[in-house]
């Protein structure tokens, strides 16, 4: 089923060639938009934004470590390296594509934004989904790589949201649930 879904999405790039430059741009460059958003939130004056970014970055590190451990137990090369007639739109060296690092990064931060902000952050989750789709479209990931990356990113974002704000690193009191909602 993984290969069939991959073929369906990747072959769409052969049929709708006009979309290829847009999806390749998203697959390669949306990460810079996310990095800019992280920096803007980090250096903003709203105190809750720094907590959100710290939570997201800790969650991201844990999700990436979990992804690397998962990749040690399940390894597969990119579709362009193992399947015939793949519409490969991004040049890259062959390595383990499981799970997708781009998807882990995007879903960790997008879900963190959503959990902390709850306003206008559906766009980040939508962008995370489009990034995952674009990586399949470009021939560099299987759907399972994307799905596991999304699950790891989302799961660790939720864990970070629940745990990081409760850690007392200074003499200030821990945030209560009500205070977290007001951030």
TrEMBL record:
<protein>
    <submittedName>
        <fullName>Undecaprenyl-diphosphatase</fullName>
    </submittedName>
</protein>
<keyword id="KW-0472">Membrane</keyword>
<dbReference type="InterPro" id="IPR036938">
    <property type="entry name" value="PAP2/HPO_sf"/>
</dbReference>
<dbReference type="InterPro" id="IPR033879">
    <property type="entry name" value="UPP_Pase"/>
</dbReference>
<feature type="domain" description="Phosphatidic acid phosphatase type 2/haloperoxidase">
    <location>
        <begin position="56"/>
        <end position="161"/>
    </location>
</feature>
<dbReference type="Pfam" id="PF01569">
    <property type="entry name" value="PAP2"/>
</dbReference>
<dbReference type="InterPro" id="IPR000326">
    <property type="entry name" value="PAP2/HPO"/>
</dbReference>
<feature type="transmembrane region" description="Helical">
    <location>
        <begin position="123"/>
        <end position="140"/>
    </location>
</feature>
<feature type="transmembrane region" description="Helical">
    <location>
        <begin position="22"/>
        <end position="44"/>
    </location>
</feature>
<keyword id="KW-1133">Transmembrane helix</keyword>
<keyword id="KW-0812">Transmembrane</keyword>
<feature type="transmembrane region" description="Helical">
    <location>
        <begin position="98"/>
        <end position="116"/>
    </location>
</feature>
<feature type="transmembrane region" description="Helical">
    <location>
        <begin position="51"/>
        <end position="73"/>
    </location>
</feature>
<feature type="transmembrane region" description="Helical">
    <location>
        <begin position="146"/>
        <end position="164"/>
    </location>
</feature>
């Amino acid at each position: 089923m993984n290969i069939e879904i991959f073929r369906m999405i990747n072959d769409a790039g052969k049929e709708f060639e006009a979309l290829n430059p847009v999806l390749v741009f998203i697959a390669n460059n949306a990460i810079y938009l996310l990095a800019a958003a992280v920096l803007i939130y980090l250096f903003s004056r709203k105190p809750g934004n720094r907590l959100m970014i710290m939570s997201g970055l800790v969650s991201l590190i844990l999700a990436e470590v979990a992804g690397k451990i998962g990749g040690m137990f399940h390894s597969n090369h990119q579709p362009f390296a193992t399947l015939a007639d793949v519409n490969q739109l991004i040049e890259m060296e062959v390595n383990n594509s499981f799970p997708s690092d781009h998807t882990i990064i995007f879903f960790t931060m997008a879900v963190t934004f959503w959990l902390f902000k709850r306003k206008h952050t559906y766009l980040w989750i939508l962008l995370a989904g489009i990034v995952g789709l674009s990586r399949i479209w470009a021939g560099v990931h299987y759907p399972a790589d994307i799905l596991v990356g999304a699950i790891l990113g989302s799961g660790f974002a939720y864990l970070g949201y629940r745990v990081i704000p409760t850690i007392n690193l200074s003499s200030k009191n821990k945030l209560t649930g009500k205070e977290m909602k007001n951030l």
